Queue: 2 jobs
Job 1
Amino acid sequence: MTTTNENETEWIQLAREGDQAAFGRLVGAYQTPVYNLAYRMLGNAAEAEEAAQETFLRAYKYLHSYDPKRPFSSWLLSIASNYCIDRLRRRRITWLPFQDELAAPVHVTSSPGNPEAIVERHEQKEEIQRLLEALSPTDRAAVTLRYWYDYSYEEIAENLDLTVSAIKSRLYRARRTLADMMEGGTDNAL
Amino acid sequence: MRCEQAGEMMSERLDGRLNSAAIGLLDAHLTECTACRAEWQRLQALDSLLSSAPLVRAPLRLRVQVMSRLERRDQARRTIVGGAALALGTIALALLVWAPAILGLLDVTGMAPALLSGGPETVAQLLAFLETTGRAALVLVEQFAIPLAFLSLCGLGTALALNTLWVGAVWRTRALQ
């Protein structure tokens, strides 16, 4: 994961002193990583947007407690993942069918490509979200941090407040579940 | 090697956490065990799918929405702080102006002793002390024959001065934020 650079250090310092413009630059720099984590965790665009906003608001509120020795991205993503885990746990009480949520329009990346490639990417994204939905909130966070942020086991453990050996078991268990789901999905398609 | 152990090693291998000796052991097991070989292929296919998925881009409006919510939150906080300051200042002003009259009224109606007897001992002692101090002040006032109206004007002036200082302090705090 990226480490804190000079500009970022300055923005953080200014934001801590109440400079909202400097905090806006931090939001600009980290909006996609935070949004992606929320999207992978929550599975739909509207909730991901809300979660990303809430993550940045909490970050601003608790900026005084940020330890500059730690990468800012890790601190921010830890706020995001914990918020999403809580939200998923609450969602279990007021359960919403995941497929209905996916039917809502999701943001498709604006990278160039022919229509078939765009559709393929969209289908791939939906397939991945279908798989992730089978995991518990914590396992989902572990898989997301591993694959989209290239976090080491130690970094995931720190982020989720678990031991390295717990992360090792969780990733193995999650992979088996996902592989079962993927196989099931393929069988159904055939 | 047990199949369960091989499974965990496969997962670690995908994450690049196995050394060459461990990879050799796993490969030897995969050569012998058909079930684990199939499992390895499944995990590799999954790894390939997840590894190829890009980050989902944030909508362009996200930053504007965050900054707008931050501004609204700050405004609400400033309103609450300002309102609290105004309320406290007004209460302080009212107490300073009306304190002699309230003390006198309580004394006349005999309510003060009743109120004091019902409260905790410490509070009662504190109020008793205040009452004694107030009486002493009144005696001094009588001794020096200062008109009550003049005393009220002094109280009002003091209250206004304190209130002005308080509002000034609140404005300076807001300016620093």
Job 2
Amino acid sequence: MTRTHQRGGRRFSRRALLGLATAVAVGRLFAVGPLAVTPAAARPLDDVLAAGSVRVAVYRDFPPYSWKEDGVVKGVDVDIAREVAKTLGVKADIWELTAGETVSDDLRNGVWKGHYLGGGVADFMMRVPYDRTFGVLNPEAVLAAPYHRERFVFLRDPERVDTSVIDDLPDVPLAVEIDSVPDFHLVSAAGGRLRSNVKHYMTMTLALDALWSGEAAAAAGPRTQIEAALAARPQRGFVMTPLTMPPPMRASWDVGIAVNEASRDLAYAVGDALAAMAADGRMAAIFAKYGATWEPIPIDD
Amino acid sequence: MKRSITAIGLATSLVALTATAVLAAGPTSDDLMKDAATTGDVLTYGMGPQAQRYSPLDKINRNTIKKITPVWAFSFGGEKQRGQESQPIIHDGVIYVTGSYSRMWAIDARTGQEKWQYDHRLPDGIMPCCDVINRGAGILKDKVYFATLDARLVALNKDTGKVVWNKKIGEYKDGYSATAAPLIVDGKIITGNSGGEFGVIGAVEARDAETGELVWSRPTIEGHMGTLNGKESTMTGTKNASWPGDMWQMGGGATWLGGTYDPETKLAFFGTGNPAPWNSHLRPGDNLYTSSTIAIKVDTGDVAWAYQTTPHDGWDFDGVNEFIPFDLKKDGKVIKAGAKADRNGFFYVIDRTNGKFIQATPFVPKITWAKEIGKDGRPVYNDDNRPGAPQGDQKGKSVFAVPSFLGGKNWMPMAYSPDTDLFYVPSNDWGMEIWNEPITYKKGAAYLGAGFTIKTIFDDHIGALRAMDPKTGKVVWEQKNAAPLWGGVMTTKGGLVFTGTPEGFLKAFDAKTGEEVWKFNTGSGVVGSPVTWEMDGEQYLAIVSGWGGAVPLWGGEVAKLVKDINQGGMLWVFKLPKA
């Protein structure tokens, strides 16, 4: 039961396995919960247009991408989704999805099956890694329309840390989100020398709180989150540099949307809308609104 | 039932008493402690606080078992048919049983007539890990108690099903959940915690049964402070003694299966989950007290002793399995012992007064991660069977390890018979390919994880019900089962051992020889735990049927074995009719 551990790989996490087994057996099992007798099916484009609204899944409590403040859901992904809906000529119905153990679980709960407790699925989902291998492992969902490149960065207080070379870091507290790639990187870098310096926090926001309070002298995490924090918090002259790390860890990845297998035409339409936003500056403007830099995906990559 | 009559029979005329007054009394803390010996009821999860799951009833025995017949069956209804891992509670002619999706029923034990149903309202956004199961209720005085998927403890009036109190025991938004049956000792409801894959700290907590107010808490990871009556009490272990850096602050060790209790030593025993993060190379040290059994003093919540079954776990071997107090009769002495069949494949016998190791032997035919448990009680590791570190440009080494992380035994409770001096262990023979996964994502971001896939290791079975002799550490008999066993076991003075199978049967075996003497097809997989009691001079038996839990969540070869099993949700009641 439970279940209490991080593990990845869709065939292998306990929750992911739930998805696999039920996918196999979906014709026989009662794939329903107490909140909805029949999960709302993800719909193809025509149905979305006819209904006049599109249901978009965003992560719950995940600033600056998507979070709720004073009862209003906001953030980079929320603004992008609303802009896409506007382009499609429909209303955006933003749905906050609780993150599961891995994104594979989120795809199952968000777009292709729905959680067994009910709540239905979305027509499309934001912030899904656009990765061929990952896509192969998740055949029930279609990964599409990459809209930006995310990367890990290192943020340091130059008065306490005079280098961005990880192996040369002094013995100072380093703040990371628990179980993230930067966590693994820092804990295992330099033969484990930094292990006792790494301070773990439940969220990136808390890790950044620690840096600003002086509890930590540096932090590592996704660029958009760190840039948004730099914009929203008091200026301290912190220095941000890209984080490089040896494979199999990866310092950058691309982010797109996911739809149900049956909704490919919707994915194409959303992709067109996102491409237009990238071309005419609306995409960069949305990131800028939150203090972040929109990094496009290189065409020749 | 007998207790109600003794309680009131002395002082008052029976005639003057209404049935309601008798009902309202309910069992006392003392009654719960004597549950194993009283045959008219089943007041505790485990059929006694020690959870030996032994009944002194013998009307149903090898000779009569074929004559038992179903009396009635009760459907849990609705679309909510998944995973019924519950054990019924029987009191005063009423069955209290929990079901999937945090529901509870009170049912007339004679007729199957529903008295009330409680449907817990589950909030949006909960993320229970491993199906929507519940393992059972507790009862004390006029209230019944159970834990819910949104990590709350609910007290209901036993006669009306109305909520008396409802307390948060974990934050469901952080992934906490609760499925275990509460342990009730001296007016305290004692629970473990579960869920929360990131940053969870295992804990055991005691609440006042009347009010639900926290009395004490005991974190399971060293360095954390316990509390008693709202104040800090003692620290668990020594901070940083077996953990690097700040990793003790989110070290794992969830106590998701609940606990057992020994009235003699006044200790509660809780097993703890595996450590976090998953990759063992990142947390050198024993990582106390993960994958352990912790003995806790129930009056203060202080740790009396702890015994770690898998130090520095690297295979996801939770140590949550039940620790069953029993008297070990060996070499002419009686030792106050306890036994635990661990996920890691070894059957441990421990001195329950002090946690000293007595012996540990395999209860499964193959174990790859350790050669043996040494005389010091520590495993002798096979170092090349530890999954490799994901360093440099190579992904970590993949290994094939047995048992799988689902364990030589998972949650399903074993039973102990003082007649045969044997433990009856519902075990599983399977292995896992396990490696470090370079490409995984969480919440839209890249991260590292572990990959594994469960595999069978024998052609004819995964499950095996095994009788273990705690004196010799040897398997005395075994009964194989094609699908993995996932239900609890019960044994009786009638010389029988009962357990259910995913194939849908409730089965009875000869306690001495293991011979299968009876089976009944319940219509869906059985992953609950059977109970027996006496009513109106007849011996009854009850089992919940309804396939689900963690096994059907698995892919690969295991999924093939169970893919044709239909879900369900049904309480079956049998009896041996009067001649």
